[in-house]
UniProtKB/TrEMBL annotation:
InterPro entries the record matches: AHR/AHRR, PAC, PAS, PAS-like_dom_sf, PAS_fold, PAS_fold_3
Region (Disordered): 57-76
Keyword Transcription in annotation: yes
Broad class of where this protein is predominantly found: nucleus
Protein name per its UniProtKB record: AHR protein
Keyword DNA-binding: yes
Pfam families, per database record: PAS, PAS_3
SMART domains: PAC, PAS
């Protein structure tokens, strides 16, 4: 019911709790952020402001010189002081109330990649942690920030209307599906177990869209974001559903960890318009080496005419299925683009 989400952050900067509605505002799933450092989500210019508000007197101790600023919260432990409850104001004190603005990483934002949030709440003691000091003695409960995070900019009517249709999926770096939210399961009809099949997830994509999607996949691996991609997904009822998607890499400790894709269903007419606008030349050739990402051999086994394999892979659906039965003996890697499409049932076309 909130126009935002609930956030509980410990004095060390770890996210102790986040309500699941964080996914509606930042695109991250609740389980992906809990027990992670809050500073991995906050704009570098706003990290010091957040750190300041975690301290009861708005005056946190500075990290020792020579240590990098606590990007991932790893150096925070050295600069956090454990307080005894009698050293800080009582819990109902107005000194512990907080209201401030920070920019958070947002997978749903196509412009800056950050969303300004107003955090309003107070510092309260977080009980039941059973933490111990270096000498082994039990530490008393420490202050944590309990706040409601709401977007600084109120959502437009259009955003509110389209929000009900948007669904998100989580993938490995090769695009193998890992998870799908409740709306996605309704729209596509699959359970998460059915989505987690062997292969890269390209077997759910229309043959005429595979190379177009692969080009944006390559772009995302290089730049961190795919840009808007319009393509057809196969539903459980063997129907093609047009979606407009934007994929982003999510990093942990500076390395790409997984992909989050935000998708909005389109009408068939809208999808057809995008298809007409799409350039007809192949997005990349097998000579550039980028096909190595998908472990495709060249020349493609099962194709006698080398020009056919190079020029008509994304359009000639009959060619795919005519050779589908002999894909194993020809040695087509089932996780390559060609292997993924060959595994599709030709009846879906």
């Amino acid at each position: 019911a909130l126009n935002g989400f609930v956030l509980v952050v410990t004095s060390e900067g770890l996210i102790f709790y986040s309500s699941h509605t964080i996914q509606d505002y930042l695109g991250f799933h609740q389980t992906d952020v809990m027990h992670q450092s809050i500073f991995e989500l906050i704009h570098t210019e706003d990290q010091q402001e957040f750190r300041r508000n975690l301290h009861w007197a708005l005056n946190p101790p500075h990290a020792p010189k020579g240590e990098p600023s606590a990007e991932g919260g790893k150096n925070l432990g050295s600069s956090v002081i454990a307080y005894k409850p009698d050293q800080v104001p009582p819990e109902n004190s107005s000194f512990l109330e907080r209201s401030f603005v920070c920019r958070f990483r947002c997978l749903l934002d196509n412009s800056s990649g950050f969303l300004a949030l107003n955090l309003q709440g107070r510092l309260k003691f977080l009980h039941g942690q059973n933490k111990r000091s270096e000498d082994g003695s039990a530490l008393p409960p420490q202050l944590a920030l309990f706040a409601i995070s709401t977007p600084l900019q109120p959502p437009s009517i259009l955003q509110i209307q389209t929000k009900n249709m948007i669904f998100r999926t989580k993938h490995k770096l090769d695009f193998t599906p890992l998870a799908c939210d409740a709306k996605g399961k309704i729209i596509l009809g699959y359970t998460e177990a059915e989505l987690r099949v062997c292969g890269t997830g390209y077997q759910f994509i229309h043959a005429a869209d595979t190379l177009y999607c692969a080009e944006n996949h390559v772009r995302m691996m290089k730049t961190g974001e795919s840009g808007l991609t319009v393509f057809r997904l196969l539903t459980k009822e063997n129907r093609w559903k047009w979606v407009q998607a934007n994929a982003r890499l999510v990093y942990k400790n500076g390395k790409p960890e997984y992909i989050i894709v935000t998708q909005r269903p389109l009408l068939d007419e809208e999808g057809g318009e995008h298809l007409q606008k799409r350039s007809m030349h192949l997005p990349f050739t097998f000579a550039t080496g980028e096909a190595l990402l998908y472990r495709s051999a060249y020349p493609l086994p099962g194709f006698s005419d080398p020009f056919q394999s190079k020029g008509k892979v994304s359009k000639s659906k009959k060619t795919f299925h005519r050779h589908g039965r002999c894909s194993q003996k020809d040695g087509v890697d089932p996780s390559s683009l060609l292997g993924a499409v060959m595994r599709q049932d030709k009846a879906v076309y």
